[in-house]
Amino acid sequence: MFQRLLCIGSLIVLGLASCSSVRHEKLEPLTVLRQQELLRVVEPGSAKFEARWTPPELQSQGRRVRLGLQMFGVDPECLRQALGEGPELLGAVVVPREQATRLCEALKRRGEREVHGLSDSTLEVFAGDEACVSVGNERAFVGAFEISTTAAGAIADPRIDVAQEGILFHVEVEPLQGTEEIGFRFELTQSFLDHPFLRRNVGLQAGRVPVTLEIPIGLRDQLNARIRLRGDEAIVFACDRLVNDGNGRSMLAVLTADLVAD
Description:
The protein is α+β, with helices and mostly antiparallel strands. It is built from three helices and 13 strands; from the N terminus they run αβββαβαβββββββββ.
């Protein structure tokens, strides 16, 4: 019996040793074709972020453009392997598309402890129009009280509002210029809310028990760029913050653009 238990224990130890020796493939460093100028704005955030885009019935006709957007929450070490140190870590670079594809495939093979998939979206947009992708969470909160006075006294009804946080990607495709390149402007907004919400007690009437209001506050982190891409290129951009992630992950996104065949 003792020998049997010893054998089982040895198998467990060997199994743990083999698991601990597993190493993920190292990400292939990307070849930077050109550094992309990127404007980053950080400002106090509100409880909502909204997309500005043209309703489908107002879209123009003409050539269509297919945009591919993949967004990940990644361990900072993954960023260093793919993008290196320095300003590239928090910027945007144009790289060969085949390398960007291999990067996305390698990230998808990583476990949730290192990489979290945020979005894998494909958008078809008429040249000259715009579209957006939103990934976020909503949380209800008591934003106000409506006071009504009657002969019997005052009644305070709470007003429930909704706070939003997440990622909003907005893109405007430029009219085609007869070249192999597709031009567009993108705006990627990350909205961060502090948790728990700030609370304030307010006395509505003298001698009455005060009511509690909740005040969502946070930051809005926005990346803006105007770029041109060929079909064999992709743009990779990164940011050092990630919404709703307690693991210290950063955001990495890959964007591609193709003309849709008629």
